[in-house]
């Protein structure tokens, strides 16, 4: 972890927790992390729980994120949700291009890019996800996949846009499987992402960019991962669904 970059720990609750359950979880988390001032803490509950969690964390050091958004302002898009709806619910961040969105719902580099631009235009901070599958890694396509996703997701973004963005590296083979990339493996890809951003922009933008790791992060492995020079935080799945485990993870040393 580079001391010049502020760590960011985000809990992605995925399709878990009713509004009542989500409010209770957030309320229990608040006192557990209240004294932490040197890192950003973000919660991403499902859409139906955004307002409840917003109320529970109001005035605290925890920010609210959504798990997705649509690329248009409004319209006949049944089942979708707009940036303005997210802002009205209290969101500051939005996760875009999560591997599960790519795998199950047809997200592409082009749709990710459109959503990133929409988020930035409306004042939301995007957490842009990239990552390879096990088959792609074993086929020697790691660099190709990561470089393509980074370039595609960031297409036509300005340097000022990049100062507001967070990237998250998710090795798809390590999500929900209990498998975790070694700290060295994870850092290698984070460094690759940073190098690609450097080639697209410049050294200043690349060195300022925060890149989270998102592959089965737990309180037990967080400190080793965060010790790596190019890892600036975590996008946490299962371990964020219990306040004690997520608080322990936020407090990595």
Describe this structure in words.
With 253 residues, this protein is α/β, with parallel strands linked by helices. The chain has helices at 19-33, 50-57, 83-88, 99-105, 109-122, 134-138, 142-153, 159-162, 183-200, 203-208, 222-226, 243-250; strands at residues 8-12, 40-44, 62-66, 93-96, 125-130, 166-169, 210-213, 233-236. Strands 7-6-5-4-3-2-1-8 form an eight-stranded parallel beta sheet. Strand 2 (40-44), helix 2 and strand 3 (62-66) form a beta-alpha-beta unit. It is globular. The protein starts with 7 loop residues before the first strand and ends with a helix.
Spell out the blueprint of helices and strands.
Layout: E1 8-12, H1 19-33, E2 40-44, H2 50-57, E3 62-66, H3 83-88, E4 93-96, H4 99-105, H5 109-122, E5 125-130, H6 134-138, H7 142-153, H8 159-162, E6 166-169, H9 183-200, H10 203-208, E7 210-213, H11 222-226, E8 233-236, H12 243-250
Parallel strand pairs: 1-2, 1-8, 2-3, 3-4, 4-5, 5-6, 6-7
Summary of the model, kept short:
The protein is an alpha/beta fold. It is about 45% helix and about 15% strand.
Brief descriptors of the model:
253 residues, alpha/beta, 8-stranded parallel sheet, 43% helix
């Amino acid at each position: 972890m580079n001391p010049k970059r502020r760590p960011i720990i985000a809990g992605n609750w995925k399709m878990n927790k009713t509004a009542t359950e989500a409010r209770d979880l957030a309320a229990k988390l608040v006192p557990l992390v209240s004294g932490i001032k040197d890192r950003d803490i973000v919660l991403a509950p499902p859409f139906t729980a955004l307002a409840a969690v917003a109320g529970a964390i109001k005035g605290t050091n925890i920010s609210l994120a959504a798990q997705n958004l649509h690329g248009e302002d409004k319209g006949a898009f049944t089942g979708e949700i707009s940036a303005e709806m997210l802002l009205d619910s209290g969101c500051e961040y939005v996760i875009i291009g999560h591997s599960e969105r790519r795998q199950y719902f047809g997200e592409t580099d082009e749709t990710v890019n459109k959503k990133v631009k929409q988020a930035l235009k409306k004042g939301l901070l995007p957490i842009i996800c990239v990552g390879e599958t096990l088959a792609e890694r074993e086929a020697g396509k790691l660099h190709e996949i990561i470089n393509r996703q980074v370039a595609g997701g960031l297409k036509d973004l300005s340097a000022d846009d990049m100062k507001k963005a967070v990237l998250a590296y998710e090795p798809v083979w390590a999500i929900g499987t209990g498998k975790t990339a070694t700290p060295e493996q994870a850092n290698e890809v984070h460094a690759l992402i940073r190098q690609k951003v450097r080639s697209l922009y410049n050294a200043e933008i690349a060195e300022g960019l925060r890149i989270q790791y998102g592959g089965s992060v737990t309180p037990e492995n967080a400190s080793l991962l965060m010790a790596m020079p190019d890892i600036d935080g975590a996008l946490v799945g299962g371990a964020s669904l219990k306040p004690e485990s997520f608080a322990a993870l936020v407090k990595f040393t």
